[in-house]
Design a protein that fits this description.
Number of strands: 2
Strand content: under 5%
Number of domains: 2
Number of helices: 11
Radius of gyration: 20 Å
Helix content: 55-70%
Shape: globular
């Protein structure tokens, strides 16, 4: 039925625009360029790492407001500080980028690269607009801790940005990695899911994040995966 009023015309325009932009058929006609045909996996990994750390630390120095305290939940009270989980926590920096070239099929690898870049950009924008923090100084280590635990925990706390908490990038990238493993090589998915779950626990036990950060990171990782998997196409 054709629009009759001016408001109907506006609604009709936005509806048609939405269909054109988000239709899978339209996006099939405009696929993203293949990165693996232009760059090696090592170069892409280096570029992603550079992009991540540049935007991650840039958003900590330049933000729109004062960092807000992340609310503590029941789960945060239940899981007491345990610095030994730092060893699991640190694996989230290396596992996705070192495994995607060996685990994923070519098309899934391309999508994972693009999804990882989108994840970095999205979290950086959120950190810039809505900075948050967890009071990590409230969870000190004792002098009796294992010496490697002290070294890595102190290193993490001295280098990690305290105001980039919500959503947790470690959780979102872990969830994203788990989904893509399920899609590309499902036989490895149980191992990938277990690793992602342990990373989530490690963020809570080390008090790098609170449960709300993990919840937001899990949602973001899932949304990015669904967008890339359902809407984005890459040239073969």
């Amino acid at each position: 039925m054709p629009p009759n009023t001016e408001i109907d015309h506006i609604k009709y325009f936005f509806k048609k625009t939405y269909v054109k932009i988000f239709s899978m058929n339209i996006l099939k006609n405009y696929p993203l360029p293949s990165l693996l045909t232009r760059f090696s996996r090592i170069k892409i990994s280096f570029l992603i790492i550079t992009l991540f750390f540049s935007l991650y630390y840039l958003s900590s120095f330049y933000s729109l407001g004062e960092p807000q305290l992340v609310p503590k939940t029941f789960f945060d009270e239940l899981l007491h500080f345990n610095p030994h989980w730092i060893f699991v926590y640190l694996t989230s920096y290396v596992v996705p980028l070192t495994c995607f070239s060996n685990v994923f099929k070519k098309n899934s690898t391309e999508r994972f690269i693009y999804s990882f870049i989108i994840l970095i950009l999205t979290t950086s924008i959120i950190f810039f607009i809505f900075p948050t923090y967890v009071p990590r100084e409230n969870y000190p280590m004792t002098e009796n801790e294992f010496f490697l635990t002290q070294i890595f925990m102190n290193m993490m706390r001295s280098t990690d940005v305290a105001t980039n908490c919500f959503p947790s990038f470690h959780v979102s990238s872990g969830v994203l990695f788990s989904f893509f493993t399920l899609h590309s090589q499902w036989k490895y998915w149980p191992m990938s899911f277990l690793w992602s779950f342990l990373v989530i626990l490690s963020t809570l036990y080390t008090k790098q994040h609170y449960a709300i950060d993990c919840f937001g990171g899990a949602i973001l990782g899932t949304v990015v995966y669904l967008i890339i998997f359902r809407k984005i196409y890459v040239k073969s």
